[in-house]
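Milestone M4 deliverable, item 7.
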Amino acid sequence: MMENIPPAALTAYKTQDGRSLAELSRGSRLLVVFLRHAGCPFCREALAEISKRRAAIESAPARIVLVHMMNDQQAQALFRKYGLHDVDRISDPEQVLYRAFGLTRGSAAQVMGPGTWWRGFKTAILSGHLPGKPSGDVFQMPGAFVVENGRILRAFRADTSAAKPDYAELATCPIGDESPRT
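Output delivered:
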C-alpha cells in the first residue's frame, strides 16, 4: 500500500529545526505519529510507549516525527517528560497536516463512547497517564504512518481515540505487510 501525500503538505509544515517532511523523508524512513490533544491520556500513553520503544524504532531504521496541535513551548515541555524533547516535532494547530494524511475528527462515540471508557480508565488511572489540560481539538483522531521519499508506505488511522498501533512493529514490519492494529 503506497499513498501519495499532497506535495504542499510535505513542504509547508516544518519541524522545530525548520526541516520539512519532504526533506526528512528523502532517502530515509520516518515514523510520523499524529497525536491527539496534549491533555489526552492516550496521547501521553503513546509518548510513553514511543519513548520505551525508541531504540527499536530508530534501529528499524526509522526517524520519529511527532505531529501535534500545541505551540512549540508546550510540546517541548510535554515531550521532555517522556524523554522525547530531541525528536523532530511539527506543530499543526489547524490540523491541515492531519487532514492531508487522512485523519479525521471523531464522533462523540469514537472519542468518548462506552468502548473507550475502560481503556481510558486503565490508561489514566491504572497506568498513571493522568489527563491534563486539553491543548488542541479534543475530537481529533490519532494516527501513525511510515513515510519514505514523500510517500506513505504503511498507515494506521485510529477508529477510536483509544486505538493505537504497536509503534515499533509499524516501523519495522516489511513494507507490503498489512498494517498492524491493536
